[in-house]
Design brief:
This protein has 8 helices and 6 strands, in the order βββαββααβααααα. It is of the alpha+beta class. The model has no long low-confidence stretch (mean pLDDT 84).
Length: 299
């Protein structure tokens, strides 16, 4: 089943020693683009995180956010003693110079930028193993939830595309009928014009018939109609396929658009008789544009 490129998932794991919240957001993108925001202690796991995401998402931008909380401290506080000593020395000098009273406030001193720094303590094997197992289990559940939402939206898009393909099939059938009628009308119109011309200037009848035949060939759209049917059939097959189909659908839509443009240009010499062909051609182009828009939402 085809997937949409948009979706969202959020999962949480609560344990005795830690809790992890994983949030995933997927949006449209031409290629696979994975963006990760997580605490620095998870950096060693980044290659594996990316590898796991790629197993579930082939195309689109995936934004991964991870929040991690330990129920037991895993950070160490370090005091910058030389910095605090400098502040205390300056405090005493000012107090002595201006004959002030009072003692420095420890709470204020510890809030001085750089006075206290927090560093991550080394995780022992037990904690590292717990963190790794919980992290990847939570991410896997989030990816499964994300793909479920993407499948639901993808099914809706596929159904819309099927309806548009069916509408185009009906338009092609109408175009075939209209085209046969317009060619007959054009031939009758041409015969009248040629008869009038021959009565006035008596040109070479063979030459006129030859030119008329060339003009009729130039306005023939049978090949374009056949190619359009072939492209539509290929589109129907893609809509039944799994995996990454968005780019393929977009390519076929471009081919459909090219053939439709050719039909419209070939019908131009038909004059007034081309209006019916143009009307159907414009409907076809509108459906093709919608198909291309929907293809951008599929993986």
């Amino acid at each position: 089943m085809a997937n949409s490129m948009t979706g969202y998932a959020r999962t949480r794991a609560e344990g005795k020693d830690l809790s992890i919240v994983v949030a995933l957001k997927a949006v449209n993108h031409r290629f696979a683009d994975i963006q990760i925001r997580m605490p620095p202690e998870l950096d060693p796991f980044e290659p594996r995180l990316r590898g796991l995401i790629k197993k579930y998402v082939q195309r689109g931008q995936v934004q991964l956010g991870i929040n991690l909380d330990w129920n037991a401290p895993v950070q160490e506080a370090k005091v910058n003693r030389s910095l605090l000593a400098g502040y205390l020395s300056a405090f005493r000098d000012i107090r002595s110079e201006y004959k002030l009273t009072g003692e420095p406030d420890l709470n204020v001193l510890l809030r001085v930028p750089g006075a206290v720094t927090l560093t991550l303590a080394d995780l022992d094997e037990e904690r590292r193993g717990l963190l790794e197992a919980t992290l990847f289990d939570t991410l896997k559940r989030a990816l499964e939830t994300l793909n479920h939402s993407r499948q639901l939206e993808g099914a809706s898009i596929i159904e819309d595309l099927r309806q548009r393909v069916e509408a185009m099939g009906r338009d092609l059938a109408d175009l075939q009928i209209v085209r046969e009628g317009t060619v007959q009308d054009f031939q009758k119109h041409l015969e009248v014009k040629l008869t009038e011309l021959m009565e006035r200037i008596q040109p070479d009848p063979q030459r006129i018939l030859q030119e008329a035949s060339i003009l009729a060939d130039r306005s023939d759209i049978n090949e374009e109609l056949q190619r359009l049917r072939t492209h539509l059939q290929r589109l129907v097959e893609l809509l039944e396929a799994d995996g990454e189909i968005g780019k393929k659908i977009d390519f076929i839509a471009q081919e459909l658009n090219r053939e439709t443009n050719t039909i419209l240009s070939k019908s131009a010499p038909l004059g007034q008789a081309a209006m019916a062909v143009s009307e159907i051609g414009i409907r076809l182009k509108a459906e093709i544009e919608k198909i291309r828009e929907q293809a951008q939402n599929l993986e």
